[in-house]
Amino acid sequence: MTQELTKEDVTALILSAKKQAGLTWEGIAAQIGMSPVWTHSAAMGMNAFPPEKAELMVRALGLPQEAAAVLSESPTKIWSQTVPTDPCIYRLYEIVGVYGPTIKALIHEKFGDGIMSAIDFDMSVTRVEHPKGDRVKIEMSGKYLGYNAW
Amino acid sequence: MTQELTKEDVTALILSAKKQAGLTWEGIAAQIGMSPVWTHSAAMGMNAFPPEKAELMVRALGLPQEAAAVLSESPTKIWSQTVPTDPCIYRLYEIVGVYGPTIKALIHEKFGDGIMSAIDFDMSVTRVEHPKGDRVKIEMSGKYLGYNAW
Amino acid sequence: MTQELTKEDVTALILSAKKQAGLTWEGIAAQIGMSPVWTHSAAMGMNAFPPEKAELMVRALGLPQEAAAVLSESPTKIWSQTVPTDPCIYRLYEIVGVYGPTIKALIHEKFGDGIMSAIDFDMSVTRVEHPKGDRVKIEMSGKYLGYNAW
Amino acid sequence: MTQELTKEDVTALILSAKKQAGLTWEGIAAQIGMSPVWTHSAAMGMNAFPPEKAELMVRALGLPQEAAAVLSESPTKIWSQTVPTDPCIYRLYEIVGVYGPTIKALIHEKFGDGIMSAIDFDMSVTRVEHPKGDRVKIEMSGKYLGYNAW
Amino acid sequence: MTQELTKEDVTALILSAKKQAGLTWEGIAAQIGMSPVWTHSAAMGMNAFPPEKAELMVRALGLPQEAAAVLSESPTKIWSQTVPTDPCIYRLYEIVGVYGPTIKALIHEKFGDGIMSAIDFDMSVTRVEHPKGDRVKIEMSGKYLGYNAW
Amino acid sequence: MTQELTKEDVTALILSAKKQAGLTWEGIAAQIGMSPVWTHSAAMGMNAFPPEKAELMVRALGLPQEAAAVLSESPTKIWSQTVPTDPCIYRLYEIVGVYGPTIKALIHEKFGDGIMSAIDFDMSVTRVEHPKGDRVKIEMSGKYLGYNAW
Amino acid sequence: MTQELTKEDVTALILSAKKQAGLTWEGIAAQIGMSPVWTHSAAMGMNAFPPEKAELMVRALGLPQEAAAVLSESPTKIWSQTVPTDPCIYRLYEIVGVYGPTIKALIHEKFGDGIMSAIDFDMSVTRVEHPKGDRVKIEMSGKYLGYNAW
Amino acid sequence: MTQELTKEDVTALILSAKKQAGLTWEGIAAQIGMSPVWTHSAAMGMNAFPPEKAELMVRALGLPQEAAAVLSESPTKIWSQTVPTDPCIYRLYEIVGVYGPTIKALIHEKFGDGIMSAIDFDMSVTRVEHPKGDRVKIEMSGKYLGYNAW
Amino acid sequence: MTQELTKEDVTALILSAKKQAGLTWEGIAAQIGMSPVWTHSAAMGMNAFPPEKAELMVRALGLPQEAAAVLSESPTKIWSQTVPTDPCIYRLYEIVGVYGPTIKALIHEKFGDGIMSAIDFDMSVTRVEHPKGDRVKIEMSGKYLGYNAW
Amino acid sequence: MTQELTKEDVTALILSAKKQAGLTWEGIAAQIGMSPVWTHSAAMGMNAFPPEKAELMVRALGLPQEAAAVLSESPTKIWSQTVPTDPCIYRLYEIVGVYGPTIKALIHEKFGDGIMSAIDFDMSVTRVEHPKGDRVKIEMSGKYLGYNAW
């Protein structure tokens, strides 16, 4: 029936254009003036591009103009594996399983009864040189939200 | 039958002693010369204390001497909720669901085909002041492990 | 081993005292100056009492003094039924299943790409008279949180 | 084989027409004289349009005439994620997990042994201005149904 | 801690008294003037006894007086097996799986878009003689509830 | 590869023909001399038509002749939702959850140790007028099967 | 509270008496005049003993007299592992997974549209000598039940 | 891309040819000199045909020559329903649930600590006449495998 | 009721005796003349001790004499985590997920259509020195079992 | 939309080319100078080919040149069956269930608190002749990783 571009289509177009142009996520992120983590997740359809950033993506990767509106739509965030199987992602799940109660306890100790927001949130992934083997550094920052009592 | 101390018993003793002495995890960690994240997770039975650190814990919290050996045993790390329900921990699970593929893509871009170790790993949780509301900062660092090809 | 009061113990004490004193949640809530929804959920161990409210609970229900500290601890919110079976609670789950995507679409239309907070949140349950049968009215209010782009 | 319009087809046609005409759910709802919540959910195939409302939808959005009959069919309400992953919808699931037993207890206190109907039911979503950040207000109203004893 | 009677305790008392007195559910139901289906389900803690029926139960089975209040409490209806394993109960689950969509289609044909209430509901189980083997007859009756459109 | 009619194809043909001819399940059932419940479930592919009834279906609905053989094949009865989400079907699941143990207890009381067959089984759905709102009546009848002891 | 014998208690008593008397299931079965398969499953609480067989069990194993009534109660058949983990039992599950559709096809070919009853059912397990290693032989026999069409 | 025959394709070709030629599984099995159970399961892709049997299948059913190689490939045995819903197959699952521990106990009694192989295994399904209704007889035979101790 | 030693009791006794005597699994295995893998798994209740090995265990660890018979009973092998959470065990599950189809393909290539037995099976775990960090070596050996065709 | 080769496409091309050329995994592995286990798993898309090995694969199997880049991409490792059903793979899952805690205990005894890496890992599958039937030998070797304490 209707043949409009979906978020999945635009993600495929981005991946294809990135490959043919030999770009990196870091490079694309720099071109649109955003961070690599956010840029990749939005390109995967897990975040919505503000309109001007969507335009920059279209230009940077030579996407069809109608892709801009699609990139700006609020996505429905869906993941199909309750427990991820890919080892790289599973290790993150394992960290939540092992250290989740610890993070919770320390947030309570440092802030009070509340949580770290996953919405007012940002993150970076960097490579840190180390004599015994380089290390992956993940930094997360989320606004503290205290529980309401009413 | 046998009535020896289990890891669960020692965790209960620690929580009770901490409460009565009015201690914080940060304070206990300082007393034994370890980080608060590791100290809490080991106290919960999710990590094993090196023998000398176990001794320090026993002294710092006035635990029975036999607790030291229990603290040093290698734990079996078990969590019972495949998807955690507590909002503070669920947000971390959500971050893995939303950003897991992104972290994976950036590790591949920066390092090659491999993962961040969850074993040769450390983490901190800190409070960062911010005019629009203070923020929780979580920093994770794990050794990059490249897949073997043989 | 240690025989301290747990959150479950205090919930049981509250239910028992409430029954013997012939109190209602509405009445208890009025005595401590909080809403009935919050008061019940905190009494069930799903929210933490601010210290002064914990003191009021202890006095209102004649609980042992040590219960106050327990009521003030940050709870770990756990529910064991992924899909609730009790018909009264299931209907709420059903409403989320049927109308969840609709609520999401209208939040996006009225606010932008974001969510309703379940932390900076309050709720009331009231009875509304109606000629064809009285109605249950549930009002929820949560702060709008817009997704961060960084 | 047979090539008739399905509910999914009509939903796609509606979304496409809405986008091209630059309409809002609020606007469409006003045109057919129904509420935005109900209109969106029926457009998604989660409720059946009364025949005259189906005709109004066809006219308002320029749908093919045969869509009217499809819009009037009783839908089979299916959702595939037992626990929703989208953060905006998950927060509602979380509210049911945390406050479900509380809503149940207050219904019992105010009405007796029964439930809030999810069938004889209506809901609204509104934006409420607030100095510390605007709030999402969700109001649900369902007929009280008392359990039968026979 | 507190040692009050729970619904489970009262169910156990009922089963024990019924066995010692050599009663049947049909007999108990007759004594309290209710149907056997409802009486059994309420005795199992799946329905609440109106106060006067609770008194009759206490008298009919010689239960402790405090059991009456427990029998009148609104139960939380919980079943732990998502798919029941007992063959007698599984067959009912199978009937829902095989004939559920058929019952739905016929309700829509005969009534419109709505459901059979499971709250304003009653049921009977009877034995019907038959030359090829007696038959179990289950009769359910629930109020038709039409979906609201608003 | 092979392009033969499947059970799903024939169900689609039946639904399409029924719609175009403006028939009801009750009407189709009368034409082939079977009950509405059985007719619908067999048309959905959940029961096999005896050859002569298959011929009647083909004639009544103007199906292609080859559909008759397909209608007569023994189906594999599959349902994909362990817990059905449609409210009309869920209520039946709920009834099994709440009253399953009660039905079992009364079968044991009236017959002995055995079950109600779901194979040598029939069912009807009827509309019963009622001053407070019409009611759905479901009548099930299954042969009692006593457990074998050998 | 009440301290009556449960089915689990009687199973434990049987296992203990069997061990101390050095009996086999074959031997016990012979003493009560039933097959070993049925005897074991009834002793495990998966089948009900006819009263006279219950008496024989009590005598054969020196059980307390009140055990007879418990042995005669209709059990609720519950297994907790949806997929059994014990290799000996898993192999049977695997056989159902691999050969279930085949058994179904051959029943349809030999009998028509129906099933093998698991209620009017019996089974034996025997040892068959074989030069390449003795074999386990399992023979099941269940009444054919044809689907009803009405 | 590549358009080679898959196991699923060949199964479809077999079912189609069998239908058009009016064959039975018993008949096909006789033609290739194998048992009906094995023949059906191999035709469904649950077992691999020895090359000469594959040739006989191709000839018996007039399959394309390239089907022979496909029939001889080792299949990956997959079933998608953890708990089968078709009543005919579910009854077998139920038998494993109810009698699995019994079969295990009798194997241990007759052979020692081990299992019945599901690999060195054969099975038959036959119809047994019976005055009260014919019976399905399933005979399984698997090599006893004793656990290794090393 | 009966107070006999269970497999769990004996496992606890072994662990306690091993700790107090400062033994290793390697040491205990050497004392009873079995391998460390088998000895540990049998001590955990996952394998049955031949009677003479059970006697040696009793002597080596100073267990009560009645423990010998318990150690010789055929265990029911149960694990409760479908997906293990402990990182050390999860990695093994991951290896099966990633390399399972590969092991299957190579077994088919080297042997034919069949499997590696997990019953006629043995395994060792050894430490292998390596300049870049010592390695864990796991060697498994199981009898090849070819599928029967009949 | 875009029509580029995916990992699944290349796997299909490899399987087809291997079949037509009559190659074995052992043979292909020898041609590219890698082990059969690694070669098969990488060909299945479970590991990434180093660029020069990808080129060798393309040449050895006559794949289109663009396949080389695809073979070198980091795969997302996904398996869809939490518990594998194929008997050959299930036996490996069973071994992890039965012996996982034993492998863990022996690693702790021989190395300390840590795990065997599944990333810095290699494996072989070989056929070992044996008078009572040849055996499958699986050898795994992974770097020992000790838990960090910080």
From TrEMBL, chains A, B, C, D, E, F, G, H, I, J:
EC number in record: 4.2.1.104
Domain Cyanate lyase C-terminal: 78-150
InterPro entries documented for this protein: Cyanase (IPR008076), Cyanate_lyase_C (IPR003712), Cyanate_lyase_C_sf (IPR036581), CYNS_N (IPR048564), Lambda_DNA-bd_dom_sf (IPR010982)
Entry-linked HAMAP family: Cyanate_hydrat
Active site, per annotation: R91, E94, S117
Gene that specifies this protein: cynS
Pfam families in the record: Cyanate_lyase (PF02560), CYNS_N (PF21291)
Coiled-coil segments on the chain, per record: none
Keywords: Lyase
Alphabetized GO MF terms: cyanate hydratase activity; DNA binding
Family: Belongs to the cyanase family.
Keyword Lyase: yes
Catalytic activity: cyanate + hydrogencarbonate + 3 H(+) = NH4(+) + 2 CO2
Protein name: Cyanate hydratase
Species, as recorded: Paroceanicella profunda
Function summary: Catalyzes the reaction of cyanate with bicarbonate to produce ammonia and carbon dioxide.
